[in-house]
C-alpha cells in the first residue's frame, strides 16, 4: 500500500474529461497527481509495484507511466492497473482518480444515449441505472457468481471447503451494471483460483456461472455499453471455463467452450475476444496433437489482433504459432516465430495489453520456448529455457511453476540427466500438493516412464517410489 505520508485528502480533485476544452488532446490528471502526494514519480511507481505484488498482479510500472497518467495521456488504466489502484485507494472509483470510463476510451460511450438522454458511460447515468435496472434477481445473480458459482464454491472444489451453492436464479427480465460486473468478477476470480490451484476440481463448478452468463445475453438491456460488457464477459468466461477443461484433460469440452467464445466474439464484432479465442484454440490444438491446426489458429489470432496495439499479445500469439511449427518438425518456421516473439516481447508492456495476459511475463516466454525446443528434440536447450522459466516465475502463478518444473524434469530425462530429472520431478510433486492439474501429472508420468530403466539408482528410485505412491493414492 502507498505510504501514509503520501495519502491524499479525502476529496478528489475532480475527474478528467476526454480532453481539453474543445474535446481534443489530453488534459492533466490533477486527481491522480494529488494521490501521489509527496512521493516522486519513481517512488510512487515502486509503491504501485509493491501493491501489485500484494494482490498477485503483474504490472511494470515506472516513473514514465506515472507521468503519462498525470499528463492525461493515459485516460483509463488497463484492468490490471485498475485493480492495483483500487487496492491502494480503497473506496475510490477510477473516475475519482481522474480517469474516464472505459467505454468512453474505447469509443463505445460516444455511440448513443440512454433512454433518459444521458450519454452512456456517464457516472450519473450509471448510478441512476443501478437504482432503476436492478430487479430482485440481481441479488440472486450476484450470490450465484460471487459465492455459489465462483468464489466460495469453486474454492471449495479446489481446497476442500464445504460451502453450499446458491439457488439457481430464474432468467432475469432485465440486466444492468450489476449483472455485467458479476460476470466480469466471475472471470477474474476463476482465473485467480486457476493460477494458484490448476484446473482439476474447478471445472465442474465453473460451468454453472457460465450458463448464467449466457442466459444474461437474452435479457433486456437498456444501454449498449451494458450489452457489450455482457457479451465480452460471457465470451471471456467461456474461455476461462474452457481453459479449466483444457488443463484438466477434457479436450473435447475445452474445444466446445472455445468455439462458443469465438462465436460470441464474431457476433459482437469483438476483435480482442476473437484473438483470445483463437489463441486458446491454438494452444489446445497443439496439446491435442493437431499442430497444423495450431499454426492456423495462431495465425488467425494474429490477424484478429493486428489493430489492438499490444506487442505483448502479438508476442504470445507468435509463440503459439511457434508451438505448432515445432509440432510439425519445421525448425526454420519455428525459429522465425520464436525470434518474432522475442522481438515483440522486448517492446515491453502497454496499456492495450489484455487483462487476461497477466500471466505472460519473461517466465512464460522462457517456458513456451522450452516446450518448442522439446518438441524439436533439442533437450539441452529445452532444459536451459525451462530452468530459466522456473527461476523467473512469480510465486503467485503456482500452477505455472509446477508446469515448468515438470517440463524441466522431462527435458532432463530425455537429455540423459536422470539424477537431475528425478530431483526436478520431486520438486514438481511438492508443488502438486497445492496444484491440481491433469496436464502436469501426465507430464510427470511420462518422465517416470523414461526414468524407469534407472530405477535401481538414487535419487531416481526415490522419485519413482513417491510418484507411484501418489498415483496409487489418487494424487
UniProtKB/TrEMBL annotation:
Q: Which Gene3D superfamilies does its entry note? A: Tetratricopeptide repeat domain
Name the domain of life.
Answer: Bacteria
**Where is composition skewed (Basic and acidic residues) in this entry?**
105-117
Ranges for region Disordered: 1-29, 105-137
Q: Which residues form the signal peptide?
A: none
InterPro entries this protein is in?
A: TPR-like_helical_dom_sf
* Name used for this protein in its record: Tetratricopeptide repeat protein
Source organism of this protein record: Streptomyces telluris
Amino acid at each position: 500500500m502507498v505510504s501514509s505520508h503520501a495519502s491524499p485528502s479525502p476529496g478528489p480533485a475532480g475527474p478528467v474529461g476526454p480532453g481539453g476544452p474543445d474535446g481534443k488532446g489530453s488534459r492533466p490528471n490533477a486527481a491522480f497527481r494529488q494521490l501521489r502526494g509527496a512521493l516522486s514519480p519513481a517512488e510512487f511507481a515502486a509503491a504501485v509495484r509493491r501493491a501489485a505484488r500484494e494482490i498477485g498482479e503483474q504490472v511494470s510500472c515506472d516513473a514514465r507511466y506515472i507521468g503519462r497518467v498525470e499528463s492525461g495521456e493515459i485516460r483509463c488504466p488497463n484492468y490490471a492497473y485498475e485493480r492495483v489502484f483500487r487496492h491502494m485507494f480503497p473506496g475510490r472509483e477510477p473516475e475519482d482518480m481522474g480517469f474516464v470510463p472505459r467505454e468512453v476510451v474505447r469509443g463505445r460511450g460516444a455511440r448513443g444515449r440512454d433512454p433518459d438522454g444521458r450519454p452512456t458511460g456517464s457516472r450519473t447515468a450509471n448510478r441512476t441505472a443501478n437504482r432503476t435496472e436492478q430487479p430482485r434477481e440481481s441479488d440472486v445473480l450476484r450470490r450465484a457468481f460471487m459465492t455459489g458459482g465462483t468464489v466460495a464454491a469453486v474454492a471449495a472444489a479446489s481446497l476442500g471447503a464445504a460451502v453450499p451453492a446458491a439457488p439457481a436464479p430464474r432468467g432475469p427480465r432485465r440486466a444492468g451494471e450489476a449483472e455485467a460486473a458479476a460476470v466480469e468478477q466471475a472471470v477474474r476470480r476463476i482465473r485467480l483460483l486457476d493460477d494458484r490451484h490448476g484446473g482439476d476440481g474447478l471445472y465442474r463448478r465453473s460451468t454453472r456461472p457460465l450458463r448464467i452468463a449466457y442466459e444474461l445475453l437474452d435479457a433486456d438491456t437498456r444501454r449498449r455499453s451494458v450489452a457489450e460488457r455482457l457479451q465480452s464477459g460471457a465470451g471471456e468466461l467461456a474461455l476461462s471455463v474452457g481453459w479449466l477443461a483444457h488443463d484438466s484433460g477434457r479436450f473435447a469440452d475445452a474445444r466446445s467452450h472455445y468455439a462458443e467464445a469465438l462465436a460470441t466474439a464474431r457476433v459482437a464484432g469483438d476483435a480482442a475476444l476473437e484473438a483470445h479465442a483463437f489463441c486458446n484454440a491454438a494452444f489446445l490444438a497443439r496439446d491435442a496433437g493437431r499442430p497444423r491446426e495450431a499454426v492456423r489458429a495462431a495465425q488467425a489470432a494474429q490477424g484478429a489482433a493486428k489493430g489492438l496495439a499490444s506487442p505483448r499479445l502479438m508476442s504470445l500469439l507468435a509463440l503459439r504459432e511457434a508451438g505448432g511449427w515445432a509440432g510439425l518438425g519445421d525448425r526454420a518456421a519455428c525459429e522465425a516465430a520464436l525470434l518474432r516473439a522475442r522481438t515483440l516481447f522486448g517492446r515491453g508492456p502497454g496499456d492495450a495489453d489484455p487483462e487476461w495476459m497477466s500471466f505472460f511475463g519473461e517466465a512464460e516466454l522462457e517456458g513456451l520456448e522450452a516446450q518448442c525446443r522439446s518438441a524439436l528434440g533439442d533437450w539441452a536447450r529445452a532444459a536451459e529455457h525451462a530452468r530459466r522459466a522456473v527461476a523467473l516465475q512469480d510465486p503467485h502463478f503456482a500452477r505455472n511453476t509446477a508446469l515448468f518444473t515438470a517440463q524441466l524434469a522431462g527435458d532432463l530425462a530425455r537429455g540423459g540427466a536422470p539424477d537431475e530429472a528425478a530431483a526436478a520431478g520431486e520438486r514438481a510433486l511438492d508443488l502438486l500438493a497445492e496444484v491440481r492439474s491433469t496436464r502436469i501429472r501426465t507430464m510427470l508420468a511420462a518422465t517416470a516412464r523414461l526414468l524407469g530403466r534407472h530405477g535401481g539408482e538414487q535419487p531416481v528410485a526415490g522419485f519413482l517410489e513417491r510418484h507411484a505412491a501418489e498415483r496409487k493414492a489418487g494424487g
